[in-house]
Structure formats: structure tokens, C-alpha cells
Amino acid sequence: MKRLEFPVEYSFDVETNSVVATVPDLNYISSFGKDFAEAEQNVSEAILTYLEALKMDGLPIPS
Predict the structure, then answer these.
(1) Any residues with CB less than 8 A from the CB of 26 and at least 6 apart, and which?
(2) Per-residue b/e over 27-61, b at no fewer than 16 CB within 10 Å?
(3) In a 10 Å sphere around its CB, with 0-12 CB exposed, 13-18 middle and 19+ buried, how is residue 26 labelled?
(4) Is 61 inside any structural domain?
(5) pLDDT for 1
(6) What is the rounded CA–CA span in Å between residue 57 and residue 12?
(7) Digits of tens for pLDDT over the chain (63 positions)?
């Protein structure tokens, strides 16, 4: 299986005191966490879920 990589943009939300991770190449899906490591783990799960949904709907997977 080909390994896909997507750039992730990180920012800090002062209102929620959390790190926000956004994936522009995947319809700007995002997730957050209390620190960088948690945000990274959460956005990885969001990416997998998004890609599984595309596959189930028969839509193309971005490369």
C-alpha cells in the first residue's frame, strides 16, 4: 500500500488554550489537542477517517 502524506498546519487557539491541526489538502479537516503531540495524534485519526469515508463513497483519494 502506498503511503500518503499530507501537509498539516498547526496553530494555537488562545480562547480554548489548545493546538489546532488543519489539513488544507483534505478539505481543511482539522482537529485539536492540549499540546502538539495530542493534536498530531488526533489529526492523524481524522485523516484516516476522512480517507475511509472517501473510499466508502467511491470518491477519489487525493494524492
Answers:
(1) 6, 47, 50, 51, 62
(2) eebbbbbeeeeebeebbeebbeebbeeeeeeeeee
(3) buried
(4) no
(5) 56
(6) 33
(7) 578 899 999 999 999 999 999 999 999 999 999 999 999 999 999 999 999 999 999 999 887
Query: Does residue 49 form part of some domain?
Result: yes
Task: Please indicate, yes or no, if residue 1 is contained in any of the structural domains.
Answer: no
Instruction: For residue 14, give its domain range.
Output: 9-56
Q: Side by side, which strands form the sheet with 18-23? A: 9-13, 18-23, 29-33
Any domain includes 41: yes
> How many domains does the chain divide into?
1
Per the confidence metrics, is the pTM higher than 0.90?
no
